[in-house]
Amino acid sequence: MGKRGVERKLRKLSVRLRRLREELVVIEEQLAHLVDDVDQASVRALVAEDPAAAIEHRQAVGHSEAMADHRRHVVAEIHELEVRQDELLDELRLL
Q1: What is the domain extent for residue 87?
Q2: Alpha-carbon span 54 to 57, nearest angstrom
Q3: What is the radius of gyration, based on Cα positions, of the chain?
Q4: In total, how many domains does the chain have?
Q5: What is the DSSP letter of 29?
Q6: Residues 34, 88: contact at Cβ < 8 Å?
Q7: Neighbours of 41 (CB within 10 A)
Q8: How far, in Å, CA of 18 to CA of 84, rounded?
Q9: Least packed by Cβ within 10 Å: which of 13, 36, 70, 74?
Q10: At what angle do helices 51-94 and 3-48 cross, to 10 degrees?
Q11: What are the residues whose beta carbons fall under 8 Å from the beta carbon of 33, sequence distance 6 or more?
């Protein structure tokens, strides 16, 4: 692949990395709120001894776990793109 092709790939990859990092910031903020919701729902479930409170707690846990899974996916994708970026930079140096 020529120098222009590598540079084009690096630009596209850089844009994708920036967007994923921005998304990660939002995900982490949302996850922090969801974890707080889980804590509050847990207390309510213990204190209220109400089936509705227990259901609310389970739902909060589910939302929090889903967001944590999404965060892991985004972090893994960022890592893969950073590795690919390093490979392209190495390739560019050899051209």
Answers
A1: 3-94
A2: 5
A3: 21
A4: 1
A5: H
A6: no
A7: 20
A8: 14
A9: 36
A10: 160
A11: none
